[in-house]
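In response to reviewer comment 3 from the previous cycle, which asked for concrete evidence that the modeling workflow produces usable outputs, we include below a single protein chain processed end to end. The sequence was submitted unchanged, and the resulting structure tokens are shown without manual editing.
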Amino acid sequence: MLEGRVPRYPSLPFEVVDVRDVADLHIRAMIAPEAEGERLIATGELLWMGEMAAILREQLGPAAAKVPAKPMPDLLVRVAAPFNPELRTLLPLLGRKLRHSSAKAQRMLGWLPRPAADTVVDSGRSIVGRSSDL
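The workflow returned the following structure tokens.
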């Protein structure tokens, strides 16, 4: 999105979790006896791509000038998907609200992921800091 490769964003959901929080959960699970043999989900808040775009534009200012500001109609995504491998793989998620929970990890290990908006901004800043093309 920061590169502006697409002029509009599709209606796609993402359960945003920071890699730093995933690492934290792994460590907690390795050292907590009660986590032995358990399966824990490391997931965060659900954000739609449009919400992420708005967060980037608001928080990164000029560095996010190419981030799309308008949605792409679902019909257009469906029509373009057969010709675009990236869109084709995302088609099953179009408009679908994901429902996964990290409640078990939070309850069992006291794990709490940081706010999704913070992760989006930190990721954007990291990308901007590493790219001279943006």
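The chain has a mean pLDDT of 93. We consider this sufficient to address the reviewer's concern, and the full set will be provided in the supplementary archive.
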